[in-house]
Amino acid sequence: GNTDLQTIPNLKYLDLRFNGLIAIGDTAFRFCPRLTTLLLSNNAVEKVTRWTFFGLSLLLTLDLSNQEGSMAIEQHSFAGPIRLQTLLLAGSGQREIPTTDFRTNLAQLLSLDLSNNSIPAIPDNV
After folding, report:
1. What are the pLDDT digits (tens) for 17-39?
2. SS3 content of the chain, % helix, strand, coil (to 5)
3. Closest listed residue to residue 93, CA positions, set 120, 113, 67, 74
């Protein structure tokens, strides 16, 4: 639980790939303010919310690729990691590009992987 992460507040790299994760608590990472890399690929995460990554202002790399089923991404889910440079969403069941976050919250993004999804169209002004 969160109490485990409280004991390592200087954590910069967290790898939770291949763990069968279904849900991530809204404040699961609040005790990891120095986290720069978060790997959550190859799980079954059902959704991320505007609070999932709240407080991770130093996060540079976020890997949410290869989720079993479709992972819902609420608007402003990436408002917390304002320095995010790499966002991996390949094979996460996306049906559209979360353009609100791209326009307002992901100004520092350098690399985005949306491969292996079901996105039928690219909207104007991505």
Report:
1. 999 999 999 989 989 999 999 99
2. 10, 15, 75
3. 67
**The two three-digit tokens of residue 107, written as one number:** 């100004």
Q: Pick the residue with more confidence: 36 or 106?
A: 36
Q: How many whole angstroms separate alpha carbon 31 and alpha carbon 118?
A: 34
Give the separation between CA 72 and CA 52, rounded to whole angstroms. Answer: 12
43: Cα separation from own chain's centroid: 13
DSSP state of 116: S
What SS3 class is residue 29? coil
Which residue's entry shows tokens 């790997």? 39
Q: Are 33 and 55 spatial neighbours (Cβ–Cβ below 8 Å)?
A: yes
Cα(90)–Cα(64) distance, integer angstroms: 8
Residue whose structure tokens are 């976050």: 101
* Residue 111, H or E segment: strand 111-113
3-state secondary structure of 77: coil
Q: In this structure, are residues 78 and 100 in contact, taking their beta carbons and an 8 Å threshold?
A: no
Q: Considering the entire predicted model, what is its pTM?
A: 0.92
